[in-house]
Design goal:
Elements lengths: L2 E5 L3 H13 L3 E5 L2 H8 L7 E5 L7 H9 L6 E5 L4 H9 L4 E4 L4 H20 L2 E4 L2 E4 L4 E4 L5 E3 L2 H12 L4 E3 H8 L8 H15 L9 E4 L3 E4 L2
Parallel strand pairs: 1-2, 1-3, 3-4, 4-5
Antiparallel strand pairs: 6-7, 7-8, 8-9, 10-12, 11-12
Length: about 230
């Protein structure tokens, strides 16, 4: 289930949006002030999409967007009563992926949400992906180094873990979430199993294993993948 964060100070509007998003099958977390959302965004961000009102008490949507972009590339959709071209450009410059003016058609909002989340998951669904000088082929379970044509084999679980990282690119993924998604809730491997997978990934993908570019350890929480 995709997780959406909604930051909107108008309680009646936030409730309507929340209910409709839930009817579409999304899990929704709502904040009614910029300050309360800011506290959440200081922690690792686990959402698949963030919807921000621009005019918020305590901390504006632009300020929140700037803080989010310091640690995550999660899709951001702005809601705003200001619909001028300059306001839209400002929102996009702050790092938003889309901008919709109030009042808006609810069906249009749901469509834009779907498009943003679909774009985010496209990499996860593709048959291959480039990571640096290497190509990961999800059909053959192989990694090929473009410059030397050297090949590395991956297990089914290793491929599943890479796909999870791609899906959650830029987000910190807790160890428990990795175990649930890759091994399933009815299996109980140790967290050291994940560590061993990461060590293998770094040997394959990283030029400097001590200073990784792609597979990052987040002490006490889990891991983060960046492209």
């Amino acid at each position: 289930m995709y997780k959406i964060c909604l930051v909107e100070d108008e309680s009646s509007l936030s409730e309507i949006i929340r209910l409709n998003l839930q009817l579409e099958g999304y899990e929704v977390t709502v904040f009614n002030t910029g300050e309360s959302a800011k506290e959440c965004f200081l922690k690792p961000i686990f959402f698949d999409l963030i919807i921000l009102d621009v005019m918020l008490p305590g901390c504006s949507g632009f300020d929140l967007c700037e803080k989010i972009r310091q640690k995550s590339n999660v899709p951001i959709l702005f809601l705003s009563a200001k619909g001028t071209t300059s306001d839209r450009i400002k929102g996009l410059k702050f790092g938003a992926n889309d901008y919709i003016s109030k009042p808006f058609d609810l069906e249009e909002l749901l469509l834009r949400v779907s498009v943003l989340i679909t774009k985010k998951s496209e990499k996860h669904k593709s048959n291959e992906i480039n990571i640096g000088d290497l190509i990961v082929d999800f059909k053959t379970f192989e990694v090929v180094k473009k410059s030397t044509k050297e090949k590395y084999s991956l297990s089914k679980k290793e491929v599943a873990l890479i796909q999870l990282f791609i899906k959650k690119e830029g987000q910190v993924i807790p160890r428990a979430e990795i175990l649930d998604n890759v091994w399933g809730k009815n299996h109980f491997p140790t967290t050291r199993t994940i560590d061993n997978f990461i060590l293998k990934f770094r040997k394959i993908f990283e030029e400097d294993q001590k200073n990784p570019k792609y597979f990052h350890s987040i002490r006490g929480v889990g891991y983060k993948f960046t492209m």
